[in-house]
Amino acid sequence: MNKIIKYVLYDIVRSKIVVAYTLFLLLLSIGLFNLGGSADKGLLSLLNLVLLTVPLISIVFATTHFYNSYEFMELLVSQPIRRSKIFLSEYLGVSLSLSAAFLIGVGIPVLLFAPGATGLYLVLTGVFITFIFVALAFLASVITRDKAKGIGIALMLWFYFALIYDGIVLFILYSFGDYPLEYATLALTALNPVDLGRVMVLLNLDVSAMMGYTGALYKSIFGSGWGVGIAFLILVLWVLVPLLISRRAFIKRDL
Amino acid sequence: MYKSYGKLQVLRGVSVELEKGKVISIIGPNGAGKTTMSKCILGMVLPDSGDIKMNGESVLKKHAYRSQIGYMPQIGKYPENMKIRQVIEMVRDIRKEDAVDEELIGLYRLEEMYDKRMGSLSGGTKQKVSAAIAFLFDPEVLILDEPTAGLDPISAEILKGKILKEKKKGKLVLITSHVMSEIEEVADEILCLVDGNVMFYETISDLKAQTQETRLSRAVAKIMKEGRVL
What we know:
The complex is a heterodimer. By secondary structure, chain A is mostly helical. Helices cover 85% and strands 0% of the residues of chain A. Chain B is α/β, with parallel strands linked by helices. Chain B has 8 helices and 10 strands. The interface between A and B is medium-sized, with 22 and 27 residues.
């Protein structure tokens, strides 16, 4: 497996997109920390931008990479290697390189300007989001052979998780405002990894005081150790479920 | 073996036994299922039903058996930004075997072009790389999908010589091809697929005797015509 990951990484590093991504994140983080004044403010702006850009870049990069390595995978499939090994090597190659870019681009500035638990949560969330959206991208790529369609599906997924989902949640909250919705919103949060990450970081900032009763409930859950544990468990599920579905589809498909 | 792509049935109950030490040529019109059949053997395409056995053991859902197969695809597709050297070294690295048979690399003078990128190679040169990789590990079974299409006459001659040499070592060589004269030169037996069915599977001398023709292309044409009537 390591050997194949080595060749996948080699291919990714040569394309230089990951390097550009690292520089972009680095500039973004340093810029935001120098702009805001207080470290918390910087973290908050960084959180919002990270939750918008990291999923988008991860999903688009991973989808195009998958289609571009089609020949590479075809070459490997006729060799004595398990298909799941080829697939997982591709996955780990892409997600590890994007995570490394994130750790350098956001992790180092956070460590310098705003060290602490909140910063750690932000970095962890970013890494999880990277792994999740690469898995979703691979799922989109395995579903269809057509590159344009695959990228289309990937973009729709990003659009859904980053923008449409929040609209749906707001709509539900607004329509059923007369009912107690605290636990329902909690469940709705778990159904979107981006929101889950956002809530986890937000609750470690002081702004959660402004979130009313729901915020207090969230705080009581995510403030405790087991609550955070469960949140991370859900994020792990968000990685594994699409990854295992797409791995299964990849093993059963004709090349 | 049965295989269909959606509504299109490509293999409808192909059942054959292939012995080693022979060169078997798979022929048939375009879309008869020749490539699909060889891809099934390689595990690149999974048959809907049926089984593929190698030395008595089923190879479906397995992968280790592929170390005994050398495959030369019809159109070699390689990562465009890798150099010839890297592709060959990568396959070697992944197979964990030392290359045993570098004869074709030498004969095709691939070493001189080792630093060229795969994307910049002509179709024929890619074919040479495919051929060199297929023979590299001295496999028991060779599957060559239209090997000489796109090769210049000299390179095609080299390849044919190599095929005959490997046959003498007791290997099984499967070739799909449309060029009858070429098949006559290298093959012992002919497996003819039409619309996903085996139409006939005979030795070349039997074919000629049955049809009383001296040239293979005529013999095959005669049988195909009769087959249509049946």
